[in-house]
Amino acid sequence: MKHCGSTLRRCALRSMCLLAGLLGLVCGSPQAQVLHTEKSLYRDIIVYQEDGLRCMRFGRYAAARQTCVTLAEPDKLVFDYTKMMMAALYLNPSPKRVLILGLGGGTLPNTLRRLFPEARIDVAEIDPAVVRMAKQYFNFKESDRLRVTAEDGRVFVKRARSRPDRYDLVMLDAFDHEYIPEHLLTKEFFQEVRNIMTDRGVLAANTFSGSRLYHYESATYYSVFGDFYGLKKSNRVILARLGGLPDRNELWRNADAVEARLVPLGTDRATLMSLVEIEKGWPADTRILTDQFSPSNLLNAK
Hints:
Rossmann fold, 33% helix
């Protein structure tokens, strides 16, 4: 408590001011209803409802929304990036072992569980408070085939290397209130992820299409996975497959195989395939992000 001030009264006052600021920015419209606020060890978490949506947000900014579900149709995907992540199934239409880094409200694991009830899904989420909110407000449930570990994603990946588990689909969706934590953006981390994937394992990574790190991220992913597909709207989803990317004919065959499952989610093969392109065009001398040359080193040097 000493960092809050010398008295409990001062600490409580500071917390009330912070909460008031957060609620004012989240709930600018009279239709908004705040369901829960919490300051966890890692972030400020707000769960609220507005315009028929229930959302989880980290911090006070609109871009910090981690999850939204439509109350009337909770199985439909709201965000474009979650729909684009489903294009990973065009590289492998029947994943058996799945790893997801970052839980939010549990949209991705809940969706994959419905699509593939026999698959085994592991989720790593650093913040136990986020896990509780996902269960309480977003219908996230664990089972013998869907397990969540409250642990940093990179730590989980390092420990997974010593186990026999290998994943044929890995989804990277770990964000704080600003962007992807920088230790989850380096060549060393991607190599660690590659080491726990099957021979034809697929990687799907959620990034921003307007990030200042765009070219550096591209060069870093390429250094580990080779050619990759990128789907872009406000977010960019990166898709890679060990052993080489499928060609367009294979993509279309796989898209046909999963079309009936994806349409109820609010997307389809025509929409997703129109976005799938091999990424290219970053400068040849683009610096690769490493544990020694991290995003913060790069941005501070400018």
